[in-house]
Amino acid sequence: MNKKEILLLFNQYKIEERLAEFIENDDKTMVNYYGDIHFDNLNIKEIPIQFNYVFGSFYCHNNQLQNLKNSPLHVENTFDCSYNKLKSLRYGPKTVGDYICNNNVIESFFGISKKINGHFFCYENNLKNFNHFPEVVDGACLIFNQTDTHLLDRFNFHNDLLDIFDEVDFLFWKNISEEEKNIKIYKKIIQKINIKNDINHKKIKI
User: Fold this and answer.
1) Is the distance from CB of 26 to CB of 2 less than 8 angstroms?
2) pLDDT for 91-109, tens place per residue?
3) pLDDT tens profile 184-203
4) 92 vs 21, 76, 99, 111, 181, CA distance in Å?
5) Is residue 191 included in any domain, yes or no?
6) Number of structural domains found in the chain
7) Strand-pair partners of 43
8) What is the pLDDT confidence band of residue 166, given thresholds at 50, 70 and 90?
9) What's the gap between Cα 42 and its chain centre?
10) 28: β partners
11) Are 2 and 23 spatial neighbours (Cβ–Cβ below 8 Å)?
């Protein structure tokens, strides 16, 4: 896709050109974007523009996406592809802050970033196992599976993820309302933030 074609799509999706950096590379134009990208709630079946770096968040939730082709290569803050029809995380970003992919039909972690620099929300999917799970998750990891509650037994806890600064919290439950889930998510994140702040405070005092 060349710059002219990209600018036409910028206009269609109301993306500000002044926040974009265009890098010409042979017959292809790469785009860095210094802000948030909103492709959410558009009922689209594919991501229309591929960005190189997004120095902000990238939202493509509440659509009809069946794959993550054209995802940005790097997202500084949040990558949100929740509430789509994704079966796979292939083609997703290579580096990311928070990774939100809940409420899809994802069957495997294959294709996900090796390191997630923030929280990882992957609840309400069809996960079969923990193969290809990220090597590092720096925030809370929330996975709710209403059918395969035994998945937890398959996860190898003998790794650095259990350190308080890379802790992974797996929460499974059945038959509770969306509101109750959101409350539990909020409380868990606040609890984690408070633990980190308390430890940092103690370290400073020492």
Assistant:
1) no
2) 999 999 999 999 999 999 9
3) 555 555 555 454 444 444 33
4) 21, 13, 10, 7, 26
5) no
6) 1
7) none
8) very low
9) 19
10) 25
11) no
Among 54, 55, 59, 51, CA closest to 28: 51
Long-range contact pairs involving 190-193 (C-beta distance under 8 Å, separation at least 24): 192/139, 192/140, 192/167
pLDDT at 66 over 90: yes
pLDDT of residue 128: 80
The answer as to whether 182 is a domain residue is: no
Its domain, for residue 109, covers 3-177
Which amino acid type is present at position 157?
A: F
186 within domain boundaries: no
Residue 197 lies in a domain: no
In the chain, what is the straight-line distance between the N-terminal and C-terminal CA atoms, in Å?
A: 56
Mean pLDDT to the nearest integer, 175-184: 55
- Residue type present at position 59: Y
Question: For residues 103 and 138, what is the distance between their CA atoms, to the nearest angstrom?
Answer: 22
